[in-house]
Amino acid sequence: MPTLVLIRHGQSIWNLQNRFTGWVDVPLSEQGEAEARRAGELIAGLEFDVAYTSALRRAQHTLDIILETRGTSIPVIRDAALNERMYGDLQGLDKADTVARHGEAQVHIWRRSFDIAPPNGESLKDTAARTLPFFDRCIMGDIRKGRNVLVVAHGNSNRSIVMELDKLDGEAIMKVELPTGQPLVYELSEAGEVLEKRVL
Q1: What residues contact 46, with CB distance under 8 A and at least 6 apart?
Q2: 3-state class of 193 per DSSP?
Q3: Catalytic site residue 61?
Q4: Mind listing the pLDDT tens digit of every residue in the chain (200 residues)?
Q5: CB 30 within 8 A of CB 37
Q6: Could you give the CA distance from residue 140 to residue 81 in angstroms, rounded to a whole number?
Q7: Catalytically annotated residue among 35, 61, 84, 154
Q8: In what order do the strands lie in the sheet with 194-199?
Q9: Angle at 132 (CA atoms; ends 83, 66), nearest 5 degrees
Q10: What pTM did the predictor assign?
């Protein structure tokens, strides 16, 4: 029974500053590094054959800290398919300032609708269209071979995977929050059927 663990990276500097991050390659904050260490401790009893992460350093650094905390070394695959949702013109902007400028209703639509993208950015639907083919081909390819897989990525790329695994529609996934540094554990059949899900 293969295990899949999804972890959103630890808090980044721009998470701390309440900025839209997207594809901007910002580092972890001190709290983010602590969250990564804690995630490594929480999954200490699990064994993994391979890890996947994005092309962005906040996810890669989180994975590095997790593996260091566990005292293990496994193959790591990095791919931009697992990058965070691209926030376009909002990247780098303070979220509160953006609300003051465009109104709470408009910013809520940009952030929380399934298929409406911010200006020059991606919607969650767009992110899923990028993430899920890679997930099915590579990550689930390992699961189908009976391998245990660790994925350290981002709030929205991981949410698109959760949407697929939990069979959620566009409305339901918008209510799902994935806290930074919190492991989400799926026990799967080799066919990819979810047998058990738990949050650590």
Answers
A1: 3, 5, 148, 185
A2: coil
A3: no
A4: 999 999 999 999 999 999 999 999 999 999 999 999 999 999 999 999 999 999 999 999 999 999 999 999 999 999 999 999 999 999 999 999 999 999 999 998 898 889 999 999 999 999 999 999 999 999 999 999 999 999 999 999 999 999 999 999 988 998 899 999 999 999 999 888 999 999 99
A5: no
A6: 14
A7: 84
A8: 76-78, 50-53, 149-153, 3-8, 184-188, 194-199
A9: 50
A10: 0.95
The angle that helices 155-165 and 124-134 make with each other, rounded to 10 degrees, is: 70
Number of C-beta neighbours around residue 25 at 10 A: 13
> Quick one: how many helices (H) and strands (E) in the chain?
9, 6
Report residue 2 as tokens: 């293969």
Q: Is 33 exposed, middle or buried (0-12, 13-18, 19+ CB in 10 A)?
A: middle
Q: What is the DSSP letter of 168?
A: -
**Backbone conformation region of residue 71, classed left if phi is above 0, alpha if psi is from -120 to 50, else beta:** left
Is 177 among the catalytic positions? no
Tell me which DSSP letter residue 191 carries. T
Residue 59 backbone dihedrals phi, psi, to 5 degrees: -75, -40
